[in-house]
Description:
- The two termini are 23 Å apart.
- About 2% of the residues have low confidence.
- By secondary structure, the protein is α+β, with helices and mostly antiparallel strands.
- It is 31% helix and 21% strand.
- The protein contains 13 helices and 15 strands.
- Strands 8, 9, 10, 11, 14 and 15 form a six-stranded antiparallel β-sheet that branches. It has a four-stranded antiparallel β-sheet with strand order 1-2-4-3, covered by helices on one side. Strands 5-6-7 form a three-stranded antiparallel β-sheet, with no helix packed on it.
Amino acid sequence: EDGQIVSSLAESWDVSADGLIWKFKLRPNLRFQEIHACGDWTSPKGVSASDVVYSLSRSARNPASLYRWALSDIVAKDATDGSLALRALDSHTVEIRLARPFPLLNRLVTVAGWVYPAEIAENCGEEFLTRTVVGTGPYRVVEHVPDDHVNLFRFDDSWSAPGNDAPARVEVSIQPDPVAALEGFKAGRFDIIETPLGTTGSARQLAASGEARHVVVETNSLDYLVLNNSQPPFNDVRVRQAINLAIDREALAKLLPDAVTPARGYLPPGASAWDAGGSDTTLKLVFDPDKARALMTEYTAEQPQTALSLNLIIDGGELTESIAQFIQTEIQTHLGLSVKINKRTWPEVLQLAFSGEGRFYRFWWNIVTPGNDLYFLFYFPGAEPPNGFNLSFYENSAFPGRYSKTFADLNSGSRARKVLDLQADLIRDAVAVPLFHHRQHYLVRN
C-alpha cells in the first residue's frame, strides 16, 4: 500500500554490505497448483529454490522474455561456464550475485520472476510452458477462452489460501462493450466492473442509490507521446521542447473528466516527489504557447523552405482518438504545424516501438510496483535494451551513467533526491511528451 515490496514466495531476503550478493529465503510448504496435461504428474508439487533458479535462468536466456536483457546485464556471470550467477544454496535459499550494485533487484524479480517447476521442462519440454498456466496462488486457472472469459477455482493448498468464506469460483468476463457490462452488473451477472469514461456517470448514479460502491483508483500509468530523438525533426531539442510547451494538459484532462490526472513530469500521483519543486518550472512540465511558438519559429527559420508536418500514429479507440484530436489542435494552433493522425492496430504500434521505426506515436506504460525508482522504466538497465524500452532514443550520453549511479545508491533517501534530478534532465531535454496518468473507475456490488 505504501509502495514497498512485501514478501510473497520469498518470506525474507538479505543483501550484502556491498550490494552484490542477494539471498532470498522461500516460505516453507509452498505448493504448485495441479497440472493435468503433462505425463503422470497431476498433484501439486512443492516449490524449491531449484525451481526459482531454473525459472530466472529461463527468463534470462529466452529471446521472448522482456527481462532477458536486464537480468543478463545485472546478474554476474559464473567464472567457469559463463552462466548467470544464480544458485540454490539449499532447498529454500536462492543466492543471486550481481555484476554491480542494483538495489531494485527485488522489484525486478517481482515482475520477471515467474516461477515454474523445473521438472515440468524435463517431463514435457519447455514448449509446454507456452500453453499451460501453472501457479502457486490462491486461485488457479481452469479455463481460458480468449476474448471471452477466464475461470478461476480456489486453490486451498496455496500459502496465501483465501479462506473458507472466499468464493469457490471466480469468473473474469471480457466485455468489450462497457454499456453491456453495466447492464450485466444491473442484472446481477457481475459483482465488479470497470467503468470507463462513457459509463462513469451512470455508475455514479447507481452508487448514489445505495446498490453499489463507486471506487476510483489513481494508477501508476503514464500516457505520453513518443518522439524518436534520432530522427528529424525530433533530433532538434527545440522542436521537442516546443511540442511539450504547446500542450495544455489541464485542458486535456477536462475533456476526460475524472478519467485522468494531468502529468507534471514523469512521476505519477502518489510518488513522494509529485509535489516537488513548487514554483520551479525546471522541475515540472508547463504550458507556455508563446515560448513554444518562438522555439518553433527559430527552428523553421534554419530549415529549407519546406512546410513541416507531423504524422501522429495512434491505436484505435474512442478515447485514443479524442486525445489525438486534442494534440492535433494544440500543435496546429500554437505551433502552426500540420498534424496528420494515422490509425494503426495496437500490435502494429508495438512493432513500431520495438523495431525503432516509430517516430511520433502515442504510447503508455503501467508501473506494476510503485516507487520513485521505476518511473523511468524505458531507461531500465540492460546491455542493449530493446528499442521499445528506450522509447525516446535519448541522446544525452551522460544520462545512462547518472541513471546507473542513482540506482546503485544504497541509501533510499539520497536515491530519491537523485531521481528528481533525473526527471529534471528528461523535462529539460524533452525526451517525450507526458500527457496524463490514468484513473481507473470501478463499480463494486455491496
